[in-house]
Each structure stands twice: as structure tokens, then as C-alpha cells.
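I am writing to request your help with a piece of structural work I have in hand. A protein sequence and the C-alpha cells that stand for its backbone fold form the material at issue. Please examine both parts with care and let me know of anything in them that strikes you as inconsistent. The record follows directly beneath this note.
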Amino acid sequence: MFQFILKRILMVIPTFLAITLITFALVHLIPGDPIEIRMGERGLSPEVHAQMMHQLGLDLPLPEQYFNYIKGIFHGDLGNSFRNNEPVLKEFFTLFPATVELAFFALLWSLIGGVILGVIAAVKKDSWISHTVSSLSLAGYSMPIFWWGLILILYVSTSLGLPASGRLPAEYWIDTQTGFMLIDTWNSDEPGAFLAAIKSLILPAVVLGTIPLAIITRMTRSSMLEVLGEDYIRTAKAKGLNTTRIVIIHALRNALIPVVTVVGLIVGQLLSGAVLTENIFSWPGIGKWIIDAINSRDYPVLQGSVLIIATIIILVNLAVDLLYGVVNPRIRHH
């Protein structure tokens, strides 16, 4: 078991280094001068421009800039933002709770809904219910996030009175102690703030969770169909066991093993989808922060945010990989 864990951890190191190199290269390929964008319409003399380039370390050769970037990573320093000179790590973890809250509820509803729909589609195999669920899951997987978000804003938000932007309506003022709006509103003295925070979360969570919902539905259906064809399920049916007990107790527990693996991949889907979702709904998380950094060519923010997000995805998938090895001991020998 120790060798299995060590092998998986060692595989992470080259992946991490590759991410730093690719991110650094792609960020510096973005057209535009960060100094000119930062200063706006004001004219800059060549002397002032060169001075600011030197202050930001942008006048150094790219290999030296990359070496300084790597050196800063190992010292826990991802640099300061070009826009406000704030440390990237501080800004990231200030905004990250908003993205975590959104991603968590998107994953929660997609996981619950996907498992239920997948089980129903498998049990009702070859029926109109199964075909409908399969068609809807395919449509959900193919649906662009920006289009789906705008549709919900235009039709659902206006008809149901759900907020279409922000984490909390302007009439509420909350002291954000934890950064998680549901926790902060629950602990506040503002009447109605908690319910308002839930309403603000519904539309973006639905949009962000639609593609994961489709993936989990299809995976659960496929896995359940395979398990329901096993010999021990037929034996349980022959013994006259209750159908609900067979499906939930005997079949579903084994069918969820592949779904656990997919959840690790969905974390990356949620974090990447949050970039679009947060901009559509003006959600103040890291997704909107990254788009603002792209527009202003804020290299440290882009490099740092992509690196942290990639590290989170790597660690989640590593944890899922190790958990899968615990659940299925045969994998440890591969």
C-alpha cells in the first residue's frame, strides 16, 4: 500500500512542473502591454515605461522570469497583483469561499439529482422514462453554460423573482467573517438575509451543476445496468427479496464506485465552469477575478490562480485515486 501511495504522489511532481511551465508560457503569449493597460489613456514616456517594467520585473529575459516565478512558488510567494499590489495568495483566499460555496451546492444538487435519475433510468430500462432521461442528460451535457445562464436569467429569474446577480441583494449589509455567505447570513442579525442568500445561489448553482448532473446521470445509469445484470442480483431476485431493497442496498452501493471516480474529475469541471458562471451572474469569486486579470494582463494573478486551481484539482484526483485503491485492492498492483 505504501508503494502504491508513493508512486501516485511521485507522479504528481512532473504534472505540477508542467503546469507551471505551460501557464507561464501561455500567459506571456497574451497580446497587450500590461503597463499601458494599467495606465489607461494617459500617455507614457519611454523612460517611465521602462522604469515601471523594471519595477515589475518584466524587463528580465523570460527564462529568468520563469526561474524567479518557480523560486517564489517554493517560498510560498506567488507575487503581487499588477493592479492593486496585493499578494496573489491573499486575494485568492479572500475570493475563494464564494467559489467554493457555489461549486459545493452545484455539486450537491447534481450528485443527488444525477444518482436518482440514473437509478430510475436503469431500473426502467427501455421505457420512455429511460429514453427521456438519456435524451435530457445528453442535452444538458451539450448545453453551453453562457447560453443556459442567459436563458434562466431572461425567463426563470423574472418569473420566479430570483436574483440574477451577486451573492446578496443590496438592501442587506453583512459582516463577512468566514467568506461563506450562507454561514455569515445565518449568524447575522439581518432578518431575511439567509433566505435572500439562498435565492441568490439558486440560479448560478443550477447553471454550474447542469453539466455535472448530466455526467453523473449517464455514469450512474451505465453502472447500474451493469450491476443489475450480475449473478448475485439475479440470485437476490430469485429469493424473492424486495425490489427496492435489491436496487438500493445491493446494486446501488456497488454501482457508485465508478461515480466516486467521476466526482474527482467533476471538481475540475466545476472550477473551470465557475469562470463563465461567475461572470454571467456577477458572482464575486475567483472566476470573475481571473477574467478581470485577463483583461488587465495581470500576469501574477493569472499564473497564481491557474496554479492554485490546478493544484486543487490534482490533489482531489489524487485523493480519489488513493480512495479507489483502498476500495478496490486490485488497483494497487497496477
